[in-house]
């Protein structure tokens, strides 16, 4: 069972939209993820993730839980890992007020080939600012049946 129950349904925003300030802050957070993760700048991951964050890699079925494990994942992938580009982000607050996001990604591999997919995120507002609580990386091809309603 996926760690993302309720994240992959068609967005049903609440009547209360995200402020432009919150939207900009989350978009900056998404940019910070790609720069820090791809460059193994693990010392600043506390500015990107909550302490209890999780990353689910749908292609392999692996789930990495906790900030320390996410740091280890980035270091294990290393400098030859994918170069991520995040685009077409859609943000909303669900019926419970949880802020979620769906972004497309393109990853350029060391050999020049690419793959793409979706990042499905759950965000948390902390005293220090917005952080990623859950990130699901779902490859677009082959499209997982039932992933998107």
TrEMBL record:
Pfam families: SnoaL_4
Name listed for the protein in its UniProt record: SnoaL-like domain-containing protein
UniProt domain SnoaL-like: residue ranges: 20-135
Cross-referenced InterPro entries: NTF2-like_dom_sf, SnoaL-like
Taxonomy of the source species: Bacteria, Bacillati, Actinomycetota, Actinomycetes, Streptosporangiales
């Amino acid at each position: 069972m996926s760690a993302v129950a309720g994240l992959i349904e068609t967005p049903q925003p609440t009547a209360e939209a995200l402020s432009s300030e919150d939207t900009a802050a989350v978009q900056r957070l998404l940019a910070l993820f790609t720069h820090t993760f791809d460059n193994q700048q693990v010392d600043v991951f506390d500015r990107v993730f909550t302490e209890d964050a999780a990353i689910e890699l749908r292609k392999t079925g692996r789930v990495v839980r906790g900030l320390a494990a996410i740091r280890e994942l980035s270091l294990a992938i290393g400098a030859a890992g994918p170069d991520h580009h995040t685009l077409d982000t859609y943000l909303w607050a669900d019926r419970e007020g949880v802020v979620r996001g769906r972004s497309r990604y393109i990853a350029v591999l060391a050999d020049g080939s690419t793959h793409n997919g979706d990042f499905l995120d759950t965000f948390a507002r902390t005293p220090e600012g917005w952080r990623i609580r859950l990130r699901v990386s779902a490859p677009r091809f082959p499209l997982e049946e039932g992933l998107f309603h």
